[in-house]
Amino acid sequence: MLSLHAAQQRPRAKAAPKIGLAVAGGGPIGYMYELGALRALDEAIEGLDLTRLDCYVGVSSGAFLAAGLANRMDTAEMCRIFITGDSDDVEFHPEAFLRPALFEYMRRATNAPRLAIEWWRDMMLGRGDSRWSDAITKFGGLVPTGLFDSTEIEAFLRDVFTRRGRSNDFRTLDANLFIVAVELDSGKVVRFGDEDWDDIPISRAVQASAALPGLYAPVEVIDKSGHARHFVDGALRRTMHASTLLDRGIDLLIGVNPLVPFDASTAHRNPEGIESRLSEGGLPVVLSQTFRTLLQSRMQVGLSRYAQTYPNVDQLVFEPNSDDGELFFTNVFSFAARRRVCELAYRNTLDDLRKRAKELRPVLQANGLALRKDVLADGTRSILDGLPKRPRATETTARLRRALDEVEHLVATRR
């Protein structure tokens, strides 16, 4: 599903219109959907180089994609890493992202004897208005703040961003990259990559932005004044944080949001036992629908406001179809379904481009882009069809290839 807002009035033609990419969160499955959607845009839009945009903003799992693209990792290479597994650069192990937070469990458990003694003492002395409610409050401190340990995520990204000419430092990137997280103690939004937060490693910023409460523990970050701050998922305040880019004077905003509420009444396919009432799916389904509805409704409000506040910016936002039961009933934290979800997103996005081609052409043309007719004409095209196998490279040859790409881009730009 494509939400399109064409600029009411564009400035005079520019040699190089500014393009920004905003990528929302959605867990591992959300990441895979976004990767498939971006791969489709990469192939179907002539002149669009997702690794050379002017600015990026990523939230939660979307921060992985934004950071990778800003580091010149194209969608083809990311597909090799996460989908086909034949990359000579990065080896992906899904289990590393779902390791139990054993240290957090043990740290909380060590407080159990002290809390039990305090509660028993208060009970004997008759303190507290409600002994059972006091017990729930007191022993709530024993519940871990996260089921899984995210340190492996940070280590994985740190390794990826410190090899083959890439950078783990916001200040050395060619483009502006912003990773959004929420400070737990104040509830305020922090944009890593801004001047006050640009010294934080990109890998740590992504770890903080993806710390979904309950799934991963809050991430501690030391600010420039030496104070320890704790951060959680950036989607708690906004879904996509597109205003971060719109405020920077871009001409075209491209956004991807992988989570939308499911419309069971118009769905093509539902799991057995679930017809038109999602309540039949139990608490997990109800919570998933609630979470998706909150995220998308908040984003739609934001897009409506952006259309009024930034009327002269072209805005394209891609989302899944609301009647897609296959995507809705896939476990949002599952890595096993990554190829299927990526393929689904790829085909959905190509369908959106085909159906809205007439409206899209003038918008894209105004920003120096065009639709590739041959890609859109292929109705059976798969995400693997346009995935050429890259020659294997060492650290040295990869850096040389990157340097040659930079020279070629510079020459083409000057021409």
Account of the 3D structure:
- The chain has 15 helices and 13 strands.
- With 415 residues, it is an alpha/beta fold.
- Strands 1, 2, 4, 6, 7, 9, 10, 11 and 12 form a nine-stranded mixed sheet that branches. Strands 3-13 form a two-stranded antiparallel sheet.
- Strand 6 and strand 7 form a beta hairpin.
- The protein is globular and about 80 Å long.
- It starts with a strand and ends with a helix.
Write the layout of secondary structure elements.
Layout: E1 2-5, E2 19-23, H1 27-44, E3 45-46, E4 55-59, H2 61-70, H3 75-84, H4 102-109, H5 112-125, H6 131-139, E5 146-148, H7 151-160, E6 176-183, E7 189-192, H8 202-209, E8 214-216, E9 219-222, E10 228-233, H9 243-246, E11 252-256, H10 282-309, E12 314-318, H11 325-328, H12 338-355, H13 357-366, E13 370-371, H14 373-377, H15 395-414
Parallel strand pairs: 2-4, 2-11, 4-6, 5-8, 11-12
Antiparallel strand pairs: 1-12, 3-13, 6-7, 6-10, 9-10
Assign an overall shape.
globular
State the low-pLDDT regions, or none. Answer: none
Structural class: alpha/beta
Q: Count helical runs.
A: 15
Mean pLDDT: 81
Q: Helical residue percent? A: 40-55%
Tally the beta strands.
13
Distance between the termini: 37 Å
Give the H and E element order. EEHEEHHHHHEHEEHEEEHEHEHHHEHH
Major sheet summary line:
9 strands, mixed
Q: Radius of gyration, Cα only, in angstroms? A: 23 Å
Quaternary organization: single chain
**Strand content bin:** 5-15%
